[in-house]
Here is the input.
Amino acid sequence: MTRKSTLSGVMLALALCCLTYSAAGAQDAAPPPPVKMGLWQSNVTTTMTGFQIPPDVAARLQAMGRKVPGATPQTVVTQSCLTPEEWTKAFEHINNNDSKCTYTNRTITSQKMSFDMSCASERGGVFTGHFEMLVDDSEHTHGTAHMKSEGTGPSGQSIEMNMTLNTHFIGADCGSVKPGDAKVLKSE
Here is the structure.
């Protein structure tokens, strides 16, 4: 299965974008990436709280073999293809003044990056959060994110998400994974 902008693909791109933005400062062009180009695998585990699912809806979801949102952590494993062009697009996105997200409190060292973010939701609310990413080496990264929405859940409730992210480089050849897409290997 392939889908654009899966959570883990977004998180990897977000981490790489912000690292690029912070390292570049006011430069017009994207700096060289701190990681290798090619096929990457991401493991993202997300725990969500704040959902108020009625018991009868939860029972129907379980009867269909579907997960109840917020009941248990969800892990998604994806592969994505990072190319110089995708790197440049990510850099351009983070510098776009029309972006629905703003980034503040950036802290950058040679192997660590963190920032606070605020993103406008399509439902009119705002997601705020903190993200931290460690570049262990050119083939490994890991990080965490904490996001909270105010009143944007299905019944107007606040939703909180905590994520852990681990990525590793697989190889220079992306095979069947196209740049800009993420291939979902597992979702549980």
Remarks:
- Confidence is low (pLDDT under 50) at residues 1-28.
- Residues 123 and 185 are 29 Å apart (CA to CA).
